[in-house]
Model the fold of this input.
Amino acid sequence: MAKLGLVLLSVCIALFLGELSTRLYLYVNSDILPTACRREDLILHHSLVPNQSCRFKMPEWDVKYKINSLGLRDKEYSIIKSPGSYRILILGDSFAEGYGVKQEHSYQNLLEEKLNKSSSRLVEVINAGVQSYSPSLEYLYLQQYGLKLQPDLVIINLDLTDFSDEQRYQDYAQHGIDNIVTATNSAKDQWERAPLFARAIPSVTWLPFIPTPVKWWLHDHSSLYDLTIKTIKKKLHPEIFPNQIDFVPKDPNRDAFVILREI
Done:
C-alpha cells in the first residue's frame, strides 16, 4: 500500500507540474483572441460588447481592444453631434475594425487627425467596423444604429471577403416588406459562430471510455489535457484542422477568396 500511495503521489505531482508548465507556456506563447469583446446579436448576427476591454495577441501583434458605450472600437462619441461639426461614419469588416492594429493607429483615427488639421470645423470619423461584417450587416447597422449618429457622410469599406460573407449571411437573413433584410440571426450559423464565439467541442469518439461530461470538464479546466488532445489530433488528422473551417475551394459559401480563383 505504501508503494501504491507513493506512485499515486508521484503521478499527482507530475500532473500538477505538467499543468503548471503548460499554463505558463500558453500564457507566454498562445494566441489570445478578443472573444470577450464580441457577442452574438439577434439582428446583426454578431456585434461588439459596449464598454468592454480585452486583449488581442498573435505572433504579429499584441494590442488592446477597448469598446466604447456605443459598441464601437473607437473613442467615445455623443449620439448627437456637435453644432457645426462634420461627421463621417465608416462601415466595414475587420479591415475597418482595425484587426491587429492599435486603436490610435486605425485609419479612421489617422484620417480624423489629418482632416482636423486642415478643416475650419470639427470633423469626426467614427469607426463602425466589425470583423466579418458584409454589406447586408452594414446596411442593418446603418438602419438600426448608424443613422442615429447623424452622419453627414457614410463610407462602406468593401473587401474581397464580402462576397462569401454575404452568401453565408443570406441563408440566415430575415426579410420584411419588399424583401428587405430586417435581421440576420446567428442561432444556426455554426460556420460563422466557430471562429468568433464557439468553444472547441471535445470529440465523443476520442477516449470513448471517459464520459463526455468529464471530457468537457477537463477541456475547460485542464490546459495540459486540452493541449495534449489538440496536439494528438493535429498530428494524426491534420485535415480536420484547416485554416478555414469547412473550407471548400471555389465554393462561395466555404471559400472566403472565391472571387480570386480561376474557374
